[in-house]
Amino acid sequence: MSELGHSQQPGAALFQMAFVAIAILLPTLFWFIQQKVLSPISKFAFYLSVLSGLSSIMVGLFPADTHLETHLIGVFVLLISTLIAINLVLIAYHRSQKLKLSVGQIFFSIWTGISGLILLIIPKQSVKLFFNDRGSFHRPDLWIIPILEWFTFISVVCWILYMVFREQETERD
Questions:
Q1: CA angle 91, 94, 99 (to 5 degrees)
Q2: What pTM, to 2 d.p., does this model score?
Q3: Counting beta carbons within 10 angstroms of the beta carbon of residue 81, is it exposed (0 to 12), middle (13 to 18) or buried (19 or more)?
Q4: What are the CA-CA distances from residue 9 to residues 2, 4, 46, 66 (Å)?
Q5: What is the spatial distance between Cα 71 and Cα 63, in angstroms, rounded to a whole number?
Q6: Displacement of CA 144 from its chain's centroid (Å)
């Protein structure tokens, strides 16, 4: 995914702006969730979302082709903090006396957690080779790491959309 933000890519500015927008939108969602759940767990999830937002800025402003180390630190912190925050919300809802967990919330939280965990633990020698010698690197026909990156990204987006629409539904009730 980081290749989309390389400084030579035509859509790099859009990629970078999107990650800066995430820095505002993600903590906003978690703030609303925290206001609804009102627990120390949801408050911690909100603080983690702020950390996610700050690391998202790092991902957007420091492209992998020009600032690889800073970019990778941002990606790692963004992934870890977002995954933990999402699953803390699951726990906070579970422990809440007034809010009920839904099947969708459980599904999307677990999907996000598992896909992110697999992405974190999978060996990444091919990524190191790619970044160290892009000119001679032969991209596999089926490269599992980008697939897992997109799968994790899509799972986070699905969780966010689910939570937004779920909250809208509960507001109407």
A1: 125
A2: 0.87
A3: buried
A4: 11, 6, 33, 12
A5: 6
A6: 18
Each residue's pLDDT tens digit, 135-172: 777 877 888 888 999 999 999 999 999 998 876 666 55
In the structure encoding, which two tokens stand for residue 160, read together?
A: 């966010």
Q: What is the pLDDT of residues 100-119, one digit of tens each?
A: 888 999 999 999 999 999 98
Encoded amino acid at 118, one letter? I
3-state secondary structure of 93: helix
Amino acid at 61: L
The neighbour count for residue 129, using CB atoms within 10 Å, is 13
Joined tokens for residue 30: 């978690």
Q: Could you tell me which of 86, 55, 51, 52 has the C-alpha nearest to residue 72?
A: 55
Distance CA 44, CA 31 (A): 10
At residue 72, what are phi and psi to the nearest 5 degrees? Answer: -65, -35
Residue type (1 letter), 133: D
Overall size of the chain counted in residues: 173
